[in-house]
Design goal:
single chain, eight-stranded mixed β-sheet, pyruvate-formate lyase- activating enzyme, five-stranded mixed β-sheet, binds iron/sulfur cluster
């Protein structure tokens, strides 16, 4: 682990759960505090100078009384890629400067791990039964946490992969910036199981993705997963624009191409940095050395800052062209981008949900 856990809170509703047992035995020297409610969160918020940073060192094990599965909310006017999200963990021990969780989980700044994952599987069972088998659905973890950062404590990846590899109408993805793949290498991969890596040039990893694995370690982990019969995905997201970035991103593509064969790639996504006004202030305060909010950005209709359109299109075109040259048959899609980006960069637009699904 590239990070440090200092405390474990366990809600009384989860004391005897297998998740608590696993985590506590993996961290035998960490103090454990039993609790009946979430009030300790208020103390953390009141007492810590940087509650978000501190919360990344605190695990809270409790039951999820809400839904585990939801549709990716996308963003207004952007083309939807029809992705469903499973949340077993909220918050993340890594500390990326641009991470939206700093804003979303401001009131819950600890790593919450849900103990009742049996409910997750029954919820997904009923969802799949009601959806039928008309087309493959894409489901993934990795929206409210890195999918594998805590996997050596929870072992969730094994349960998820074993469950989803028998589901004909589902493509399941784990998304990570780590090289924490021991658990998934302990079992056989499958055609419908995708391990996805977010990638950036090493200088961005160094400056803005604290606690993550190096680019080489991510690609090496992808190569090992490929050998174990998993499908691989790469996400150029968030793409950061700076002087010389085209060459750096093309270098990343070349590195990937020299390690991972086209047949093993399920999809590649591209999405440029976007952030809200509150996020801008959080980043300024928590990461004063980061330069990513000082680019040529403008406030868009969805109240998020993005690089100005000509700049975004220019760099997208270069990266898209290089990706298509390296991987002509692989689906490359744009994440949280409006239709004009698809038209101007890819020269085409998925006209309906069915076509978007066909991309995958
Ligand atoms: S890995 Fe993802 S979830 Fe974790 S801090 Fe970075 S952006 Fe946030």
């Amino acid at each position: 682990m590239n990070f440090e856990i200092q405390k474990i809170f366990i809600n009384r509703n989860s004391i005897k759960s297998s998740v608590s047992e696993k985590i506590c035995s993996a961290l035998p020297h960490i103090p454990i505090i039993e609790t009946e409610n979430d009030e300790f969160l208020n103390e953390i918020k009141a007492e810590e100078i940087d509650p978000v940073g501190y919360g990344k060192k605190v695990i809270y094990i409790t039951r999820n009384e809400g839904d585990f599965l939801k549709k990716c909310p996308g963003t207004r006017k952007a083309i939807c890629c029809n992705y469903y999200i499973l949340n077993l963990i909220t918050n993340c021990p890594l500390d990326c400067t641009y991470c939206i969780l700093q804003q979303y989980l401001h009131n819950n700044p600890v790593i919450k791990i849900f103990s009742n994952i049996e409910n997750l599987f029954s919820e997904v069972d009923s969802a799949l039964n009601s959806w039928g088998k008309q087309y493959p659905l894409r489901i993934g973890t990795g929206e409210l946490s890195d999918s594998l950062a805590l996997d050596d404590l929870t072992g969730f990846s094994v349960d998820l992969v074993e469950y989803f590899k028998n589901k004909e109408n589902v493509i399941f993805e784990l998304k990570t910036k780590t090289s924490n793949i021991d658990n998934i290498l302990s079992i056989e991969g499958a055609e419908n199981i995708v391990i996805g890596w977010s990638v950036n040039p090493q200088n961005i990893i160094d400056s803005d993705e604290k606690g993550s694995a190096s680019l080489d370690a991510r690609i090496d982990a992808a190569r090992k997963c490929e050998k174990n019969d998993y499908k691989i995905a790469f996400h150029f997201d968030p793409l950061i624009i700076y002087e010389g970035c085209e060459n750096d991103y093309c270098g990343v593509i070349d590195k990937i191409r020299s390690s991972i064969s086209p047949e093993s790639i399920a999809w590649i996504s591209i999405g440029a940095l976007r952030f809200s006004e509150p996020m801008k202030w959080i980043m300024k305060e928590r990461f004063p050395d980061s330069k990513i909010i000082y680019g040529e950005q403008t406030l868009c209709e969805d109240k998020k800052y993005r690089y100005i359109r000509p700049l975004r299109e220019e760099i997208f075109k270069k990266i898209y062209t290089r990706l298509k040259k390296s991987y002509p048959k692989v689906s490359v899609y744009f994440c949280m981008e409006e239709s004009y980006i698809w038209k101007d960069v890819a020269g085409t637009l998925p006209h309906c949900m069915k076509e978007t699904k066909a991309l995958f």
